[in-house]
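Entry 12.
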Amino acid sequence: MAESKALPDEMKSVICFGPGDYRLENIPIPTLEEGEVLIKVLAAGICAGDAKCYAGAALFWGDASRTAYCEPPITPGHEFVGEVVRLGPGAGEKYGLEIGDHCISEQIVPCWDCRYCKRGSFHMCMPHDIYGFHQKTPGAMAEFMKFPAGSINFKVPQSIPAWQAAYIEPLACSIHAVERGEIQFNHVVVVSGCGPLGLGMVAAAKQKSPAKLIALDLFDWKLEVARKCGADVVLNPSKCDVVEEVKKLTDGYGCDVYIEVSGHPQSVKQGLLMIAKLGTFVEFSVFGRETTVDWTIIGDTKELNIRGGHCGPNCYPKAISMIEQHQLPIEDIITHKLPLEDVVKGINLINKGSESIKVVLFP
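Predicted 3D structure (tokens):
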């Protein structure tokens, strides 16, 4: 039997109609079927991916080699936390949720039937229904949001303020990227890019206790936040030759693990020059344009391990724990709190990059 609170018939929602065309509309509140959850959205973060979708990045809108991923009109948003207001039949028992609980859902809703889901790699699910992009999974930039049957949901301690809990999703992604790097105690690790993901990666990498942890960014004020997250050394590529500086710190060898999270082509080239032979290069970014590099460096010169990173599979409990235990300076990471109607202002802040780190919206 379904459980619920009394709710209005309609809600305010941001709707993506296309690149540069996001509007605030009134739409019906989602209805529930078996195993589904309805939340009142308490806070929703704007991802760099959301900002690049707004800007027209080919990943979302297609190009000569790929079809568009975004399916407009759609409610964006995959970073969020909410309060349970309705439970479809069986949902409470399935997810351990009750009316009034705070909760979060992993950003991807797996099909549980494709090759990847069946072998446990649900974050690479073939239909790839991430909240905020596909018609099956409308996102969180609205007053209410539905978790479909098959979603992966977690209760969030109410001791975590909503504006902080909106950072759970990006932090889970950061933790996954760090795990992809397989950091060892004797490693020198570089994180390139100190946005929300990069700072989460610095904090997560610090817990791996590498020999040295280095953060790179073009803005000194973001590098100071990286220090608070645990960076031993911070370097600004606009002020020094970071490749030479890292080599000086490593007796000429270079770093063992390079995690690229800036989404800038120059950061990729810089990483390939900076990384030591037999090193591991982790890529976790959405790029606005193509990147061209000399692949000889990867094979014949250095025999590198190149690893992609996507989503935050199996990392949400750790992310919740890190925030609950105050293991990173979240007050410095979340720089802007805006009402839902200011979504375009928030996106522009992110695309500008110089004044913000994480922007959170409140419906």
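Annotation: The chain has 14 helices and 18 strands. The radius of gyration is 20 Å.
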